């Protein structure tokens, strides 16, 4: 049981490049989330998906798109990366709200 | 969701009980208190949650005051591996899978 996995672990992009961060969970959870964490700060919600086929904006959605590909997978796409998107990105899942969320190990993204 | 206030940092000796306070004076009747922790560079880890009764699990105890305006997370026998940032989060139960709102938390340092 791997829990929540994220790929890649590290990524460096140039301004304007695009990329997709992948997240998968094997716990049969309904809800999935993407957060970002800037240095010295708490996590902020980017997007979430209550169930397969639905997505909603969180606190900081600008510059991102998401896809809930199936119940297991929830991807985050940066269409045109900017230095302000340099951050650590965490994916999480939960059985449903309000149950506890399980977090992945994070993706460390640097945009130069 | 109600706002929480936590001390920025605390020290505790190894083997002693660590008591982490949280103020949530504007909490409403349908809001739960959740605690998560984040060990350096890792994804946050769920610890415990409660509504109004005290709660205990294998990791910690949660004491909520009778007026629910504050709570204390207790790690009964702290070890060096408990050094982490601890987040107190208040959120409404139900209504969809919205995310967690993280503040800056308390950096707990366990001293040998």
Task: Report the average pLDDT across residues of chain B.
Answer: 92
The sequence of SSEs of chain B as H and E is EEEEEEEEE
First and last CA, distance of chain B: 37 Å
**Helix-residue proportion of chain A:** under 10%
Oligomeric status of the shown chains?
heterodimer
Compute the number of strand runs of chain A. Answer: 11
Shape of chain B: globular
Sheet/helix structural class of chain A: mainly beta
Helix content of chain B: under 10%
User: Major sheet of chain A: size, sense and barrel closure?
Assistant: 7 strands, mixed
Mean pLDDT of chain A: 93
Task: Give the SSE string of chain A.
Answer: EEEEEEEEEEE
Radius of gyration of chain B: 13 Å
The structure class of chain B reads: mainly beta
Rg on CA atoms of chain A, Å: 13 Å
Quick description:
The complex is a heterodimer of chains A (112) and B (112). Chain A has strands spanning 4-7, 10-13, 19-25, 31-37, 43-49, 56-57, 64-68, 74-78, 87-94, 102-103, 107-111.
Description of the molecule:
- The complex is a heterodimer of chains A (112) and B (112).
- The model of chain A has no long low-confidence stretch (mean pLDDT 93).
- Chain A has 112 residues and is mainly β.
- In chain A, strand 5 and strand 6 form a beta hairpin.
- In chain A, the strands form 2 sheets. In chain A, strands 2, 4, 5, 6, 9, 10 and 11 form a 7-stranded mixed sheet that branches. In chain A, strands 1-3-8-7 form a 4-stranded antiparallel sheet, with no helix packed on it.
- Chain A contains no helices and 11 strands.
- Chain B is mainly beta.
- Chain B has no helices and 9 strands.
- Chain B has a 5-stranded mixed sheet, with no helix packed on it. A 4-stranded antiparallel sheet of chain B has the order 2-7-6-5, with no helix packed on it.
- In chain B, strand 6 (61-64) and strand 7 form a beta hairpin.
- Chain B is globular, with a radius of gyration of 13 Å.
- Chains A and B meet through strand 4, strand 5, strand 9 and strand 10 of A and strand 4 and strand 8 of B.
């Amino acid at each position: 049981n791997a829990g929540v996995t994220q790929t890649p672990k590290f990524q460096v992009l140039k301004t304007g490049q695009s990329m997709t961060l992948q997240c998968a969970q094997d716990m049969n959870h309904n809800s999935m989330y993407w957060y970002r964490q800037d240095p010295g700060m708490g996590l902020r919600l980017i997007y979430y998906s209550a169930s397969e086929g639905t997505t909603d904006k969180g606190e900081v959605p600008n510059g991102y798109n998401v896809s809930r590909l199936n119940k297991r997978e929830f991807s985050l796409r940066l269409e045109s990366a900017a230095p302000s998107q340099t951050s650590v990105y965490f994916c999480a899942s939960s059985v449903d709200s309000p149950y506890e969320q399980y977090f992945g190990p994070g993706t460390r993204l640097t945009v130069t | 969701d109600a706002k929480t206030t936590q001390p920025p940092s605390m020290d505790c000796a190894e083997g002693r009980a660590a008591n982490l306070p949280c103020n949530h004076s504007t909490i409403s009747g349908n809001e739960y208190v959740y605690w998560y922790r984040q060990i350096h560079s890792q994804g946050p880890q769920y610890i415990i949650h409660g509504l109004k009764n005290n709660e205990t699990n294998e990791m910690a105890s949660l004491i909520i005051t009778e007026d629910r305006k504050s709570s204390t997370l207790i790690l009964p026998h702290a070890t060096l591996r408990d050094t982490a940032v601890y987040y107190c989060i208040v959120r409404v139960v139900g209504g969809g899978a919205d995310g967690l709102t993280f503040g800056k938390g308390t950096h707990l340092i366990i001293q040998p």
